[in-house]
Design goal:
Blueprint (H helix, E strand, L loop, with lengths): L5 E4 L3 H12 L4 E5 L7 E10 L2 E10 L1 E4 L7 E6 L6 H8 L3 E9 L6 H6 L7 E7 L2 E6 L2 E6 L3 E5 L19 H22 L12 H15 L7 H4 L4 H14 L6 H7 L10 H7 L5 H11 L4 H9 L3
Parallel strand pairs: 1-2, 1-6, 2-5, 3-10, 6-7, 7-8
Antiparallel strand pairs: 3-4, 8-11, 9-10
The protein binds NADPH dihydro-nicotinamide-adenine-dinucleotide phosphate and ketopantoate.
């Protein structure tokens, strides 16, 4: 592989964070923005864990930013950091600048956009699906804050033999689909409930929401154990108890945060609903009345009040 710069696409919270991180790892990085240029220097307020104490340090990173039509080089390593609904189009805007054997990685929530992206790649390009539990907030066009320490993993979307290694070796996993379905399960509970009821993540643990959360988890456990579910091989371990532990832990750890879907609804932005609840509804071999209500509560704002009542009447 040639030593060309990494191309990071999307100057949102995660894109800026990864542009800085890749630069810190010693790589040359070019960043593609859509509406607002972050300029030449990005400030990263990072969170580190030293001797059990979390510390914040601000660093400045020189990164070259481009609009897609300003690119002139060819790239071997690409990291797409858009929301799932923008993924394929964002790639297509720069596709002419990506080499025929490039590593193309993406880091978006939900499932479905990865296959859309795979469908426009050439046979020798490798798609690396990624997930991250880092928390990052964009404060200004050129300023981000690391709000939660987490992990990031990449795995081949279509596993090859012998298995390939991601350009950053330590981030490679062989079971990315399992990790993605685990993350999707958490997002399918916390995101729509917090967005529909306008509450912080920790509030879903309150007594008022216990019957709803419990019914949502049990419906999810039914899909995940169903032999005809398209991810059955990767989801058998997600029993009701296992899901409850995962959701409770994340809700507790992020109790004062707003979920990304809650924030999208609050700011009247497009949500990733179709790639979270929508993915489950489209791929489930059984009816999912609760997930359908959650999907509708997000997709149809005019039904939200009615949906809230229905969801709270679940026993
Ligand atoms: N932030 C976080 O802490 C976490 C985020 N995630 C996931 O990571 C993904 C990215 O999240 P986040 O960074 O917060 O989202 P943002 O909305 O902050 O950033 C997405 C960026 O992608 C840009 N974009 C969209 N289309 C294009 C395009 N064609 N060319 C160039 N840029 C484009 C958008 O540009 P524009 O400014 O024009 O809209 C926007 O700046 C999401 O799927 C999210 O769910 C996962 C875990 C944590
Ligand atoms: C884990 C969680 C729920 C944290 O807010 C998240 O991934 C999101 O908001 O999309």
């Amino acid at each position: 592989m040639k030593n060309t710069p990494w191309l990071v696409i999307g100057a949102g919270a995660i894109g800026l964070f990864w542009a800085c991180k890749l630069e810190k790892l010693g790589n040359k990085v070019h960043l593609v923005y859509r509406s607002e240029s972050p300029g030449k220097k990005i400030t990263l307020e990072s969170l580190t864990n030293e001797d059990g104490q979390q510390k914040i340090t601000a660093t400045k990173h020189k990164i070259k930013s481009f609009a897609a039509d300003e690119l002139s080089e060819q790239y071997d390593n690409v990291l797409l950091c858009t929301k799932s609904f923008d993924l394929k189009d964002a790639f297509l805007k720069v596709a002419g600048h990506i080499t025929d054997d490039a590593n193309i990685a993406c880091l978006c929530n939900g499932i479905g956009a990865q296959e859309e992206l795979q469908s426009v790649l050439s046979d020798n390009q490798t798609l690396w699906a990624g997930i991250t539990s880092e928390g990052v907030l964009k404060i200004e066009a050129n300023h981000i804050k690391h709000t939660g320490l987490g992990d990031t993993y990449f795995g081949e979307w279509r596993p090859s033999t012998p298995a390939k290694t991601f350009p950053i070796d330590s981030l490679t996993v062989t079971n990315i689909r399992q990790r993605m379905i685990e993350k999707l399960a958490v997002n399918a509970v916390i995101n729509p409930i917090t967005a529909i009821f306008n509450i912080h993540n920790g509030d879903i643990l309150n007594d008022e929401f216990k019957p709803l959360v419990s019914a949502t988890l049990s419906e999810l456990a039914n899909i995940f154990s169903h032999p005809k579910f398209s991810y059955a091989e990767q989801s058998q371990h997600l029993t009701c108890e296992n899901l409850k532990n995962r959701v409770n832990t994340i809700a507790q750890l992020t109790r004062l945060n707003r979920s990304s879907m809650h924030e999208d609804i609050r700011l009247q932005r497009q949500t990733e609903n179709s790639f979270i609840s929508g993915f489950l509804l489209n791929n489930s071999p059984i009816d999912l009345p609760i997930q359908q209500l959650l999907f509708n509560g997000i997709a149809f704002p005019e039904q939200r009040e009615e949906t809230q009542k229905k969801l709270l009447s679940i026993t």
